[in-house]
Amino acid sequence: MITIRKSNERGAANHGWLKSFHTFSFANYYDPEHIHFGNLRVINEDYIAAGQGFGKHPHSDMEIITYVISGALSHQDSMGNASTILPGELQIMSAGSGVFHSEFNHEKDRETHLLQIWILPKLKQIKPRYDQKSFTKDFEKNDFVLVVSASGRDGSIRINQDAEIFSAKFSAGKKFNFIIKPQRKIWLQMITGKIFLNDQILTNGDAAAIDNEKEITIIAKENSEFLLFDL
Fold it and tell me: pTM here?
């Protein structure tokens, strides 16, 4: 079964410096039909104004992934990490027993566009952990790129959960068949572009919940970028 969640069905919040679209219930947005999908708890599409950001705040027992689409995001945390995340890079933080962090757009004249993703952890109260990696060259392959996995296989970043995340930047006309393993479910999150998922159309910000399917076919009708979560 494939269930489409259109971009305009998401929750939305405008704080002036931050515009955010919530795929699942988050902060003041509550939708009992969309609290989580398996272990996938949050997908927020954020637009952070120049010179603005999230001040220091705590997290625990959550796998937090940042995927920058455009602009740049500066990160600092209580583990001593300080870095800038750019498009083509992915950051993951296992909050574990507790961590404080801040994230700012230090650009002077452009907003930062990103996805922030939360996945429920397999093990709780672990030692907090941070990782960041560039996949820029991999994204040039016009194919699925494994960016997150439990084992860290194929150069992916390790996560504390039985979950895999694939990033895809497809050129127009690209076709791909994805085999779904037994007892697994898939969430596909569009970023930009237009694809056919089997016989259904997805565009910017749309998503699809895929359950009890053995295989899906994806055809890019134009240059497209999306994430696929194997849960």
Answer: 0.96
